[in-house]
Specification:
Blueprint lengths: L7 E6 L3 H12 L4 E2 L6 E4 L4 E6 L4 H7 L4 E5 H10 L6 E6 L5 E8 L14 E4 L2 H11 L4 E4 L7 H4 L4 E6 L3 H5 L2 E10 L1 E6 L5 H22 L1 E8 L3 H7 L7 E4 L6 E8 L5 H9 L3 E7 L6
Parallel strand pairs: 1-4, 1-5, 8-9, 8-10
Antiparallel strand pairs: 2-3, 3-4, 5-12, 6-12, 7-10, 7-11, 13-15, 13-16, 14-15
Length: 297
Amino acid sequence: MQMEKTRLRIAVQKKGRLADETFALLKATGLTIKENKGGLFYRIKNLPIDLLLVRDDDIPGFVFDGVADLGIVGANVYEEYALNNNNQRRAQCIQELGFSHCNLCLALPNTEGYADLNDFNNKTIATSYPNILQTYFKKGGISASTLEMHGSVEVAPKLGIADAICDIVSSGATLEANGLQNVKTIFSSQALLLKTTKALSTEKKDTITKLLSRFEGVRQSKETKYIMMNAPRSALPALTKLLPGAEAPTVMHLEGQKDSIAIHAVCRESVFWETMESLKTAGASSILVLPIEKMLA
């Protein structure tokens, strides 16, 4: 596909959990994706955007070099790439996207005890992130060697080629299955939106502004709830204080009930059962908490 100069190019991971959550975000923002099975590019029908489907560790380089205008990648991959290139961050992180959370952790065989980080002195650690690991060890005054591996890092101790591993952990199931214990988190990661530092056309800048607004709307709608309740008018001040992260609520008179009102509010923080119980104690009744599908500030 020949990509027009006015169409924004976004590099995304072609498969895996990050890819699935990235496409879920794009679809939640109302983007209609025209898939090209087995192809390198997907086209967005309703905005001037093309998606470049690549390996996750290629994304920072494509954004740094201007091959892609934006990239969605894990912070772990971004950090490793930057450290591998003398910490040159020729791309700007313009938004933390709040998904694909994971940790880069040090793990030892279950048969070994662990006291503190000094236990890794003079050990060999298998990892796909040698630069992050060595930077962390250097700050902690630890002297250890790294064995760089890509894929199946967790089998290194069983094969006798490493004493421990440093790998991405989400649920911990893979470590458990391979007789390993997570002993130290050295880096916490989530999906980031990167932007090239190269000059962009006005059309691309406008598309980025619109996209960022939609991303923020999706984030807010996930965190925000719409709450409705009935209450005596006298309880309004106390109830307003209890509404988590709410602006001034909408108050309506209930027909035929002189001293009763209906209260509607957008709560920008989580509404827990404890919150609802507190509202009830303060005089509220018929409390409803509803999800918000779309939100644009």
